[in-house]
């Protein structure tokens, strides 16, 4: 793995995460989705940018723009 963090989520894991985040955002619409790295820059995980990936999640889901395979 040469010491570089890599996003190794499977399609199934991405789908499960998306479903969970969708439900949580419906319950708590003002919540910002962030990763551990966003709260503590010393952490290297997750190995993807949560803020960018999930920004405006509900709007994109409702418009049919956000698809699990596109993660």
């Amino acid at each position: 793995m040469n010491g570089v963090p890599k996003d190794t989520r499977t399609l199934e894991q991405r789908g499960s995460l998306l479903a969970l985040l969708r439900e949580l955002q419906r319950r708590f619409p003002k919540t910002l989705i962030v990763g551990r790295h966003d709260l503590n820059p010393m952490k290297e995980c997750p190995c993807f940018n949560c803020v960018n990936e999930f920004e405006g999640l509900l709007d994109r889901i409702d418009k049919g723009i956000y698809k699990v395979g596109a993660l």
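The mean pLDDT is 78. Residues 11-27 form the longest helix (17 residues).
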